[in-house]
From TrEMBL:
Source species of the chain: Trichonephila clavipes (Golden silk orbweaver)
Compositional bias segments (type: Basic and acidic residues): 80-92
Listed name of the protein: Transposable element Tcb2 transposase
Predominant cellular place of this UniProt entry's protein: nucleus
GO function terms (MF aspect): nucleic acid binding
Amino acid sequence: MANNQSVRRHLDAFTRGQIIGKLEEGRSVTSVAAEFGIAHSIVSRLWRQFQTTGTAIRGFSSGHPRGTTPADDWYTLSYRPEETGGRQREKSFDTQYRRRSLWCREHRNWRDNEWGRVLFTDESRFSLSSDSHRILIWRERGSRNHPSNIIERDRYGGHGVLVWRGIMFGSRTDLHIFDAGSVNGTRYCNEILPYVRLFRGAMGLQFLFMDDNAPCHRTVAADQLLESEDIERMDWPARSPDLNPIEHVWDFLGRRLAARSLPPVTIRELRLALQDEWAAMPQQLIDTLILSMGRRCETCQAVRGDHIPY
């Protein structure tokens, strides 16, 4: 164990980048660990760190930790064994696991053309400060993805821009960058749902709309607008960003911004850079992510609804 920790501490940024790159190509953790001559557990932890925080390689971060509020907002991880009410929370987590497992069981056998009719959507904040969302935490070994380690994260804090987008097999929405101010139900209806309406009009009744359970998504006005447009909303399990393929899109954009020879230093530059990188993103990458949904469901069900390292 001591040797593994020593190796992990001395993995430089270049080596970490090589490891992440090979894993993103679809290589298994076992094969990558063997190639670099390091323990499987080290590569696995590095991959989970990257999937959760986007910071396995230090650099420009999207500021979008994988997580949620109680209504599927963002979360970050923290272990607090001294908190009271642990038994009640464990019951709540068991319920959450069961719902996730049931959802995955219902969808794991979906064919590619069924996933292809879903518009996956999400919001994310991109900050000019790469470390604006990093914190140091303590927790028990092996407890990273335990729901007791999930706390709320402010979706709209920090100096940057909040963006929304949707992805679908063979297509995508424009990248919508919100002007200053918080996003409430009214802004969601006025600024975001028109994009959804366009896709519904193009696809017809087979269209399926996925958004998470954030409060601004679940207002009476939003529900009524979707119903009036005959837009079917996909049932989505709470606190399940690991099941949403769009999470990888946020990571991709963050890395592309970091790789620029002149990273953005003003809000205007950040907005322009995001639009450029979004337009340049290969559709094949998006399609591959959407077609991973079956594997995500199988993996999640295999761990009985627990969170998965996607």
